[in-house]
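Journal club prep, notes for RB
We'll compare a predicted complex against what the paper describes. Inputs for the glutamine case:
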Amino acid sequence: MNRRSKLGQIALAVLLVLGLMLTVVACGNSEQSNNEGNEAEKPVVYKVGTEPTFAPFEYKDIETDEITGFDIDLIKAIAEVSGFEVEIQGMGFDALIPALQGGTIDIVASGMTIDEERSKQVDFTAPYVNSGLALAVAVNNEEINSVEDLQGKTVAVQIGTTGAKKANALKDEGIVKKVLTYDTIDVLMAELTKGTADAVINDLPVTQEFINKGHHEIKIVGEPLDSEQYGFAVAKGKTELLEKLNSGLQTVMENGTYAELLEKYNLPENAWPK
Ligand code: GLN
């Protein structure tokens, strides 16, 4: 090989390497701009926290192992009309407000009652369900028919709930003797049949659904103890998100979706806060 053709080969190699480098840079660039383009189009994903033992509002579908229920379908319908996406996360009921405040989740959809104390910590949407507390006892219990009959009795409740608050207030008044606190509804209800607790104070539609699902070993007694309304909650000051939720809620209440969900989950017409 003469010197000239050797030089030519080197020049060719240099050109090839340069060309390759340029291609890499160009591809890199175009990939980058594509990514940016996608990101701009990607809808926002909000993390939704829920305590999933609260059927029909939120519970695990045993077939799919996914969290479903009235609240979940409703927040998904709101997300669809408002142009965002949701990711559902299960956690303890007492962990929901701290998770909102700490920013691990963006929205609480968990049959959460709008009350004064919570409204100081988080912001609520307009009410999306009318509910209230009910007293439940074992089916063969003839002794307890109302709150007055709870004198000296043991009451089981779910942690951090309005039911827990009510039971503790009755204890402070010297009526209820002992309050047993549990994390999940299934465990709580089992205490009635075990005889560990004399009564349960829990949201009426949830206790009703538990009975409807075949748990005829318990019954609801007396009148509802109060009336409550559920709202979706966001961290204080998240006004943009709150507005999206409120306007989306209004849309799904007007476009027929809300009525369909009431029917799907067998909730009474008066659950609708019109
Ligand atoms: N509605 C009740 C409350 O807000 C119970 C909610 C629940 O247990 N998921 O305290």
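Talking point for the session: Residues 51, 54, 93, 110-113, 158, 161-162, 203 surround glutamine (CB under 6 Å).
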